[in-house]
Design goal:
- This protein is mostly helical.
- Among the domains are: 8-131, Tetratricopeptide repeat domain (Serine Threonine Protein Phosphatase 5, Tetratricopeptide repeat); 334-477, Serine Threonine Protein Phosphatase 5, Tetratricopeptide repeat (Alpha Horseshoe).
- The protein is 85% helix and 0% strand.
- It contains 20 helices and no strands.
- Helix 12 (235-252) packs antiparallel against helix 13.
């Protein structure tokens, strides 16, 4: 299977990093940045007109802090601090909690997880004290999103479950649906596909009941069903779900979602070795990425089209796309994607050598595989280093330079051992976390059972005492 670039968009962030925030609504970055900038401009104008340190100024500051997290989170932090100081001065506890939460959101946008968690905890402490259970649930959910982004799926599950239970008690169906969606994604990443599907279906049921079948939230579930079915190689089902998502994105005019849908359809056809169909959808995605000026998205589609043309043995056309992608990634500074492009170019030249026999092609292939390895090394991506060195060793074998190929293979085995050790450590950590989670659940159940037993004993002792007192009273009379 060829190495494909991931979806370069906020949808990638949802699936891989899970950094959308449960504030007033869930939003997708590229879709709302423009409207948020307009909101920020309006709020700044209002702030300049209102100097009084009162509750209205706090509301403006707090709204600004929230809206900055997608545009300029550093500025969002500065505004958050001003909002926090004013809330303290005015002794507004609920508002202070909201300001801490928005500061956490801005730290989250900067990937400063520890400080984001600290801010959420500060908000939760206040919200618990004043009885704001809905606010507690929102902050707990945001903490879960951070845990998910760090691959702490058990920690994320615990947070999502706590948030869901609160929303369920409050009968907040819309937020129940959003949390179920996140629970489904989390389960999917833990390879619990059946349970993930159940969570997605439950969320769909809620959205249908709320008549929200033409929303981004509803479409995102179909998108996640696509990922799930692609993982289990149910490609026909995956295509069906993706077309359902596409329909909604087109209805609401969400261009980035449409582009991602075409990209995903291209990946599915590429996985089933239907390169021409894949190119058709990659080109549609490319056109939209150009229209919305998404530079990473454009480079991603150029790469995917180039790889697909290599599969069709149209090598010169493939190189045209790959070289354009290479220059874009150099300008952007995305070394991981640049490594993928260098590997794809090397593979192109190696196949041309196999077809024509020109040794210059083999030398160019080796040069590109080396560059792929160098870029992967700079990003500490062991898997990509191994892939690049494997390809480089193969090129040396073709030369033939068996001594150099052997040396590279030894390096590959060393890296595989390091990777295997790292994966084993991760697996042990995962098992330890599972065990710790089960132990905590068992302790809670045990404490509950002990409490019930103690309550029963006290109750029985109380009854015995009452009987004894009655008996004494009867004898006395």
């Amino acid at each position: 299977m060829k190495n494909k670039l991931p979806l370069i968009s906020m949808m990638k962030t949802i699936l891989i990093k899970m950094r959308y925030i449960l504030g007033s609504l869930f939003v997708l970055c590229s879709y709302f940045c423009y409207s948020q900038q307009k909101t920020i401009d309006s709020l700044n104008l209002e702030l300049n007109k209102h100097d009084d340190p009162d509750e209205y100024r706090f509301e403006i500051l707090n709204s600004l802090a929230y809206n900055y997290y997608l545009i300029d989170p550093e500025r969002g932090l500065q505004i958050s601090d001003e909002a926090i100081m004013l809330a303290k001065k005015l002794k507004l506890e609920k508002e202070l909690a909201s300001a801490y939460k928005n500061k956490g959101i801005n730290y989250d946008a900067l990937s400063n997880d520890s400080l984001a968690l600290l801010m959420y905890d500060k908000a939760i402490d206040i919200q618990k004290r004043i009885g704001d259970t809905n606010g507690v649930a929102r902050c707990i959910f945001n903490k879960g999103a951070i845990y998910f982004g760090n691959s702490d799926y058990l920690g994320a599950t615990e947070c999502y479950q706590q948030a869901y239970e609160i929303f369920e008690k409050e009968q907040d169906s819309m937020l129940m649906g959003k949390v179920l969606n996140s629970i489904g994604v989390n389960l999917m990443y833990r390879s619990k596909y059946s349970e993930a599907a159940d969570a997605f279906l439950k969320a769909l049921g809620i959205y249908n009941h709320l008549d929200m079948s033409n929303t981004l939230d509803y479409a995102s579930i179909f998108f996640f069903f696509l990922i799930l079915n692609k993982k289990i190689e149910e490609y026909d089902l995956a295509i069906g779900y993706q077309k359902a998502a596409l329909e909604i994105y087109e209805d609401i005019g969400f261009m980035l979602g449409i582009a991602n849908t075409y990209n995903s359809l291209g990946n599915i056809y590429d996985s089933t070795e239907k390169s021409q169909e894949a190119i058709f959808f990659y080109e549609k995605a490319y056109n939209i990425m150009e229209e919305i000026n998404n530079q990473e998205g454009i480079a991603s589609e150029l790469t995917n089209i180039g790889i697909a043309y290599t599969s069709l043995k149209e090598y010169d056309k493939s190189l045209d796309y790959l070289n354009r992608a290479k220059e874009m990634y150099k300008n952007i500074g995305n070394l991981n994607s640049l490594s993928i492009v260098f590997s794809a170019i090397g593979n192109n030249y190696m196949k041309k050598f196999e077809l024509i026999g020109n040794r210059n092609f083999l030398n160019v292939a080796k040069k590109n595989f080396q560059l792929a390895y160098d870029n992967a090394k700079n990003t500490d991506d062991l898997q990509r280093q191994i892939l690049a060195l494997d390809e480089l060793a193969k090129a040396h074998e073709m030369q033939p330079n068996f001594e150099q190929a052997y040396k590279i293979k030894i390096k590959v085995e060393e890296l595989k051992k390091i990777l295997s050790l790292s994966e084993k450590k991760a697996e042990i950590a995962k098992l330890e976390a599972e065990f710790d989670h089960q132990r905590k659940v068992a302790e809670i159940k045990s404490e509950l059972a002990n409490k019930q037993e103690i309550d029963r004993t006290i109750f029985e002792a109380s009854l015995s005492r009452e009987k004894l007192l009655k008996k004494v009273a009867f004898i006395g009379s």
